[in-house]
């Protein structure tokens, strides 16, 4: 089968492309943003990529066009597909029909922690010898890639609540039909799609309706919004997890800086050291351990596997130690994720200075939905550098002003680099937070710190 993917260089669609290629299909694609690492990763798989969305890429009529959710009516390639009557479907629909069907799907959903939890779960299954397939919105360091076809029966998928396609406004995850479902947490997000939290709860409830009666739902007992959603109906067995006592699954740190943890379930308990930091990551780990249990992996096996888990690219990834400064790349772009990352760093490195550089890129952030929460989330950092993009809400500057001299706002990347370089000194931790490229500020600052004075 010849599959042409529109939007092929996105993380999700690039993963779909890799899976299709692994299944033996001929794969081509189009994208407006063709650049490494995704472009080189796809080319190494023998996938031809057309830059831009010219209808010419569809001259050799494919058997199926898979259309990414970033594309809409008016796009030349989309119009060509419709006008020529070419068969088309969304990425999630293709994934369900050609990869997930007949497998034990283990889906990880929630506002935060999906990528890390999915990566942990895939690694636990791999370490246990189960050779799972996976499609994750990031690159687990233990695997070095975001997608793998794997061996039956297990497949781990990061279950995103963003909409499916211009012709299908349901959340992506309703297509996956999981047998094991992890629900990490639920907050209001994606303000460009959902008018309020109730709309998100409704989408999650549609996901719940797809889990079979003999399946399993693993949920965060501490999350009130998840409880609200579950109260609408749960037709499968369910198990709760929490860092507080009383849940079916429990975990806690066994040292002051969070370098060791203990996880327990009933009479099973195990302890290990690990490389990650923060209570939020311990929640992610506990969710992954509980989900892996549905595949027959014991608590001891799962905890031991996590002692060998190397993290995820761009999830508080330490990218350099230069001039005595520790530099990190982090994907956090929601106030809760930002706050938890800062808290985790402060616990791991008590008494050491923490610098945060933030690029607000999400539509929700730009609309001003989280202005007040953002200020509270950043408060524990020793210094905050914020890049102010065009199009942010009118209240953005006034909200950040509440941080006083603790914050510096920049409109140019070069000015941010100069400002940070003048403040940083040996022993500091410098975390860059963005769900985009951030103007290569992290790389440029690293080079500037390394340059001879």
Automatic annotation (TrEMBL):
Family matches, as SUPFAM superfamilies: MurCD N-terminal domain, MurD-like peptide ligases, catalytic domain, MurD-like peptide ligases, peptide-binding domain
Mur ligase N-terminal catalytic domain boundaries: 2-100
Keyword Nucleotidyltransferase among record annotations: no
Molecular function in Gene Ontology: ATP binding; UDP-N-acetylmuramate-L-alanyl-gamma-D-glutamyl-meso-2,6-diaminoheptanedioate ligase activity
InterPro entries xref list: Mpl, Mur-like_cat_sf, Mur_ligase_C, Mur_ligase_C_dom_sf, Mur_ligase_cen, Mur_ligase_N, MurCDEF_pg_biosynth
The entry's keywords: ATP-binding, Cell cycle, Cell division, Cell shape, Cell wall biogenesis/degradation, Ligase, Magnesium, Nucleotide-binding, Peptidoglycan synthesis
Residue ranges occupied by any Mur ligase C-terminal domain in the UniProt entry: 314-436
Lipoprotein among keywords: no
Top-tier EC class: ligase
Single Gene Ontology BP annotation: cell wall organization
Required cofactor(s): Mg(2+)
Domain of life: Bacteria
Pathways involved: Cell wall biogenesis; peptidoglycan recycling
Domain Mur ligase central: 108-292
Reaction catalysed by this enzyme: UDP-N-acetyl-alpha-D-muramate + L-alanyl-gamma-D-glutamyl-meso-2,6-diaminopimelate + ATP = UDP-N-acetyl-alpha-D-muramoyl-L-alanyl-gamma-D-glutamyl-meso-2,6-diaminopimelate + ADP + phosphate + H(+)
Binding site for ATP: 110-116
EC number: 6.3.2.45
Family: Belongs to the MurCDEF family. Mpl subfamily.
Role description: Reutilizes the intact tripeptide L-alanyl-gamma-D-glutamyl-meso-diaminopimelate by linking it to UDP-N-acetylmuramate.
Protein name: UDP-N-acetylmuramate--L-alanyl-gamma-D-glutamyl-meso-2,6-diaminoheptandioate ligase
Organism the protein comes from: Woeseia oceani
Organismal lineage: Bacteria, Pseudomonadati, Pseudomonadota, Gammaproteobacteria, Woeseiales
Gene symbol of the encoding locus: mpl
